[in-house]
Amino acid sequence: MNRKIKIITISLLLISTFALPLVGCSKKAKTSVPTATATTDQTSMAATYKDVVFANVTNDNGAKRDLKMNIFKPQGATKATPVLVYIHGGGWAMGDYQVDDAPKNPSTTSPAKTKPAAKPTGKATDQIAGDSAYKVFKRVLNSGITFVSIDYRLNSEAAFPAQSYDIKGAIRYIRAHAKEYGIDPDKIAVCGNSAGGHLATELATTGGIKELEGKVGGNLDYSSKVMACVDFYGPTDLLTMANEMDLSLQPHKEAVETHDSPKSNESILLGFSKEGQGVGVLRDIRDKNETNSPYWDKVKLAELASPINNVTSDDPPMFIAHGGHDSLVPIQQSLRLKDALIKAGVENIFMSNSKAPHGSQGEDVNNAAITWITNKLLAK
Fold it and tell me: Low complexity: which segments have biased composition (predicted)?
């Protein structure tokens, strides 16, 4: 009996001896700064610099508002890092820079009060505001790249080119404050999905176009150009979306209602949303070359707002992804952008998951996009 007690006592002492250092290591780990590794997933981390105001703007109705961004620094970063700037989607009509990291309202997320998801009907409106790309792009943190999500005025707040002004103002702000946030000002890339993809490619293809630069946020001595762009299923020609939709995915009548009518998001974006107006009217005026039309300036604005018309040989390299079953933005929009980039001699990669809708593109596409942009930003 005594021997058993001795054995138990010795065992407990041995366990205590080895357990004490482990407790000490645990406390130290909590107070030290973890180092980013290939196995460290930082996509759920909180913003390092939250709600940073980069500009004060005025909406078309005269209301003032702040434009903000969230800045996520990779863990363990000790030197200036490259940065990937994310532009949210939502049809230019909804969403903000917080995206998936926005505070959740318990009253709306409680399992008891959450309504079952509606069965998709295939209509374009069922696919708006799918921002699954946000956390995909946020993966760059795992490779030591800073991730920044930026705000811009929605189409209900201001007509184009306000959105271009806002985004270029954000890039200039980041470059002007690069030292403060530990960012390499020479390695800034942009990405976005849906409407955010449109604004990302619009930014990438309009470097140096003064009428799209604006003065939002100041810092006008700094460039708003970027070194690379990732576009996930963004519109590239605002005047042709209805006519380019695959009839097997969406009836033409519905496509016209979605894209050409005065209440379409494109029409609202262009400030051409009154009765008797709409993108369809502008396309008809353009196709007939009615330069004397009182709306000809809106036609030219729509063309300027379409990246496909702004491609030049000095544009940055691009990665384009577009699902084959997208019933909101026709895949032809991305195919035409790809062809324009090739014709201009601009490096680009196009990928399509044939079954993907207007939303999740699948892990093969996601991984390829992240690998591509990571290599661009980390290249010496």
Answer: 104-125
| 239, 284 contact by CB (below 8 A) | no
Residues 180 and 218 in one domain: yes
Name the pairing type of β-strands 64-72 and 49-58: antiparallel
Residue 50 has what DSSP assignment? E
Query: Does any domain span residue 30?
Result: no
> Contact 218/193 with Cβ under 8 angstroms?
no
- 172 with 208, same domain: the answer is yes
State what percent of residues in the chain have pLDDT above 90.
Answer: 77
| Ordered DSSP codes for 253-304 | HHHHHHHTSTTSHHHHHTT--STT-SHHHHHHHHHTT-TTSTTHHHHHHHHH
Q: What is the pLDDT of residue 40?
A: 79
pLDDT one-digit tens code per residue, 1-20 = 444 444 434 343 333 333 33
Residue 27 tokens read as 């406390």
Residues 6+ apart with CB under 8 A from 192: 86, 87, 88, 89, 133, 198, 199, 200, 230, 231, 232, 234
pLDDT digit string (tens) for 63-77? 999 999 999 999 988
The model's pTM: 0.84
Residue 338 DSSP class: H
**Domain boundary, last residue among 275, 305, 335:** 305
- ∠ CA 131-197-89, nearest 5°, is 30
Determine contact, residues 62/71, Cβ cutoff 8 Å.
Answer: no
Number of domains in the chain: 2
**Cα(328)–Cα(125) distance, integer angstroms:** 8
